[in-house]
Each structure stands twice: as C-alpha cells, then as structure tokens.
Automatic annotation (TrEMBL):
Family per record: Belongs to the ATP-dependent DNA ligase family.
Segments passing through the bilayer: none
Origin species: Actinomadura hallensis
PANTHER family: DNA LIGASE 1 (PTHR45674:SF4), DNA LIGASE 1/3 FAMILY MEMBER (PTHR45674)
Signal sequence interval, chain numbering: none
Catalyzed reactions per annotation: ATP + (deoxyribonucleotide)n-3'-hydroxyl + 5'-phospho-(deoxyribonucleotide)m = (deoxyribonucleotide)n+m + AMP + diphosphate
Protein name from the UniProt record: ATP-dependent DNA ligase
PROSITE patterns (alphabetical): DNA_LIGASE_A3
GO BP terms, alphabetized: DNA recombination; DNA repair
UniProt cross-references to Gene3D superfamilies, sorted A to Z: DNA ligase/mRNA capping enzyme (3.30.470.30), Nucleic acid-binding proteins (2.40.50.140)
Domain ATP-dependent DNA ligase family profile per the UniProt entry, residue ranges: 119-236
Lineage of source species: Bacteria, Bacillati, Actinomycetota, Actinomycetes, Streptosporangiales
Keyword field: Ligase
InterPro entries: ATP-dep_DNA_ligase (IPR050191), DNA_ligase_ATP-dep_cent (IPR012310), NA-bd_OB-fold (IPR012340), OBF_LigC-like (IPR044117)
C-alpha cells in the first residue's frame, strides 16, 4: 500500500455563507458537516484495521464497533476519511457520548454495546493499490460509492450525502440543524486531497445570545479572554463558554467594568478544559482570574452545545450595559 503511516487529514477554513458553485475552480460540491470525531481508517492487505484520529492517535480501542464495521464493509488495501458520530435516541447527534467513549477506560466495551456509533465516510485516499490523493474529488467520490455499494445508508459505515446544487445545500443547512448537523462543507470537485492543508470550506450555523462574565484570562484590567456563565434554576452560576481572544477595543472597554471577585465567587481557582471549550482531559486546567458576576456581554456562537456549554470558543460581540444578570437566559434554556 502507498499509505502505511497515519495521515494528516485535509482541513477547512470557516466562511460566513454558502458560496455559489462557480466559486470553486472545478465547481463546488456540498456535504453536511457532521459533529463528531474525525477519523481516518486504513484496512491493510490482510484486512487489519487502523483507526487514526485527526491528531494521528489510535482510536481502535475507543471504538471497537467501528473497527469491526470497517473490517466487514471496506475491502483490504483501502484508506478512507470520515467522521465518527453518535446518534442519540432523539435522532440528534450526541457529541457528549463521544466524549464519554474517549475517556471511558475499562468501560469502553460497555459503551460500544450501549451507545454504538456510526462512521460517516466522505473521502477515499487509496483503493486497489492506487493512491487516489492526487485525483480530483469527483473521481474519488465515484470510487467511494463503488466501494460501499448502492445503499449509502447501510450498517454502521455510511457515505455522507453530497450535492452540486447550492440551493439543496441551503436546505440542508436549515433543515438538518434540528438533528445537530453543524453546517455545510464546501469542496472543489476538481481538487486533490491535500494532507494537513486548509483548502476546503465550512459554513457553520451561528446564534447570538448573552451571558455573564465570571472570569478572565489575563487580568480584569487587561483581559485576554472571557469565561462566561449563566445562573441555573437553583441560582448557581454555571460556566457556559470561553471567548476567543478579545480585540483591543473590547479589552479597553471591559477593563473599565470588570472587578476582582470577592470570597463568595462559586467557581474554583482552576477550570477543567471541558468546562470552557474542548473535550475533557484534552488540555491542562484553565488558569484564570475570577471577577464579580455583574457584567453582561453579547456573544456569537456555533451550534456545538453540550449539556448547556458551548464546546468551541465563542466570539465577543459587545457589552450589554442595558441588561442585568437576572435578564440573561438560564443555564440549560434555549440560547
């Protein structure tokens, strides 16, 4: 085989809207953007399966049912790229279930039975002794559909839908949001697979809402990012998000409003990474400075919301001097 070591997956840049077909040199192809764990699967000549994460770490032990499904469905000598997802009982994508699998340890086999996942495949990098990475996407797609047969929704290994119609992509963007689909991927039909390069585009659904500043990285007089919270029904302030780095003008305006918290602040001195973006256990604890929960800000966020918290960094929009903390939505309420 040409591919014998972990692959750096091809990546995407974020854009604000779905571009027209002519914006791609070879015409655009559109796919739903699934909310899961990126994974490259390699089936060697003897049929053994390697499942690699985006960071080229082995996923085999964490998702044994995916390894078995790939072994049964995909022929030896093949490398494919896709997303491991979990559909909950309500039909929505459940990213929290994936996080549990990632840190489950000895319970992984149990979760494989009780919360089995699917592998949504969107590209093929090698097949039948041919390195397909230099080939255009439209050719790779034809090979992928040939490999997985005519039924694109059979079993635990499925092929992602794809269209060249921008209007259909707009319909997906709106209609599939209720199922937890993050948005739409946009790819050049004539484009090769470029490892580690950001040549695809992604359009994510975003909302604008409010939260209370409960802490900052940096200092209250020179804030770098904000740790945001909302009160729950019992009156406890809960962490909901962390902002991306603040622009200079925002740092200046917030410095005039933020104050060090008194001894009654409910949050610990350090926050686990999963409490303010990113999977639990994936990064060191967040060191920050607690502030009095009296400043309300408006922020923009994507749809990746787990147990009341935004998984990805949110964007600061403005200070809401007209709002009191009591007027902010409660923790767990719709944004």
């Amino acid at each position: 085989m040409h591919i014998r070591s972990p692959v750096k997956p091809m990546l995407a840049v974020t854009v604000d809207r779905i571009p027209p077909p002519q914006s791609c040199p070879g015409g655009c192809l559109y796919e739903p953007k699934f909310d899961g764990f990126r994974a490259v699967a390699r089936v060697d000549e003897e049929g053994a399966v390697d499942l690699w994460s985006r960071r080229r770490v082995r996923f085999d032990d964490a998702f044994p049912e995916i390894v078995e499904a790939v072994r049964e469905r995909i022929e030896p000598g093949t490398v494919v790229d896709g997303e491991i997802v979990r559909w909950g009982e309500d039909g929505r994508l459940d990213f929290g279930a994936l996080q549990r699998r990632h840190v489950a340890g000895r319970r992984r086999a149990e979760y494989a039975r009780t919360e089995p996942c699917h592998y949504v495949v969107f590209d093929v990098l090698e097949s039948g002794g041919v390195d397909l990475r230099p080939r255009p996407l439209r050719e790779r797609r034809a090979v992928l559909e040939s490999l997985l047969g005519g039924d694109l929704s059979a079993g635990r290994v499925v092929v992602t839908p794809q269209t060249a119609d921008a209007e259909e992509a707009e319909l997906w963007f709106d209609a599939l949001a209720a199922l937890g689909i993050e948005g739409v991927m946009v790819k050049d039909a004539d484009g090769p697979y470029l490892e580690g390069r950001r040549r695809w585009r992604k359009v994510k659904r975003r909302i604008t809402t409010e939260a209370i500043v409960g802490g900052v990285t940096g200092t209250p007089r020179a804030p770098e990012t904000l740790i945001l919270g909302r009160y729950d029904a019992d009156g406890r302030l809960r962490v909901v998000a962390r902002t991306a780095p603040l622009p200079p003008a925002a740092r200046t305006s917030l410095a005039e409003l933020l104050h060090h918290a008194g001894p009654g602040h409910p949050w610990p001195a350090e926050l686990p990474a999963g409490f303010a973006g990113g999977p639990y256990g994936s990064h060191p604890p967040i060191r920050y400075v607690r502030t009095e929960p009296e400043v309300v800000v408006e922020f923009s966020a994507d749809a990746a919301l787990d147990d009341g918290r935004w998984r990805h960094a949110v964007r600061f929009v403005r200070v809401r001097r007209d709002l009191d903390p009591s007027q902010v939505p409660l923790f767990g309420e719709p944004p």
